Amino acid sequence: MLVYPHIDPVAVSLGPLKVHWYGLMYLLAFGTGYGLALWRIRRSGSGWTADMLSDLLFYIAMGVILGGRLGYVVFYGFDRLVDDPLWALRVWEGGMSFHGGLLGVLIAVAVFCRQYQKPWFDMMDFVAPLVPTGLLFGRIGNFIGGELWGRPVVDQNFPLAMVFPHVDNLARHPSQLYEAALEGLVLFVLLWWYSARPRPRMAVSGLFLAGYGAARFTVEFFRQPDADKGFILFDWMTMGQILTTPMILGGLVLMLLAYRNERLAINVPTRTPE
Fold it and tell me: Exposed/middle/buried for 148, CB within 10 Å: 0-12, 13-18, 19+?
């Protein structure tokens, strides 16, 4: 049976300067996303410039940090905010909501599109394949921080069972690593492959929403529900599953609309010159 290796949340300490692992994971996430995006825009005919990409990354970073923190405070930590308002500003302690971060990114991309006069869904289709790498590093950050641990395993001989001593002595699922694998690595491979060829507008965004939603919904069965919320609906659905269900449905609708619109565009009758 595995035992969670307690890791100092401070990766580097230089006098009064302390660099937390959580912050490093964000740097790796944005750096990897920027590198992948830069590789993609260098393909001929992309219409992108390095300055445009830098602006987009800046807007997205602000959207992720502000939206993710605000979403976590509203969805998961409102009671703590009432007791300690300054806690909302201590991002380095962890506590970010993917759903809040997603809303922040949607708004950030809208601001970028207004500045550069770009179609919003074109930008979202461009950004979507880059997001899973951020999720990968973010979930690794959760694991390093020893947060968002899993439910107790049924079979004590389960090879991935792990004891988190700072929680209790029960063997649990390392759900942070499950999420890193599904929401991060698997979803990245799927989206990168799918977006490598031209797809109808909205299709890549739709696949991201449906793919992330399905991965998160599944892992929630192994992740310990938030102590202050527990199971919210039907005595088995967690807050994560409630927030994720509309993403799955919305993603499928977007993909259906994308391919329907493509077929309609192809089948538009043309008038024969007289």
Answer: middle
Tens digit of each residue's pLDDT (9 = 90 or more) over 159-207:
999 999 999 999 999 999 999 999 999 999 999 999 999 999 999 999 9
Using a cut of 0.90, tell me whether the model's pTM lies above it.
no
> Residue 36's Cα: distance from chain center in Å?
16
* Cα distance between residue 11 and residue 36, in whole Å: 25
- Crossing angle between the packed helical segments 187-194 and 203-219, to the nearest 10 degrees: 170
Cα 269 from chain centroid? Answer: 42
For the chain, domain boundaries: 2-138+158-197
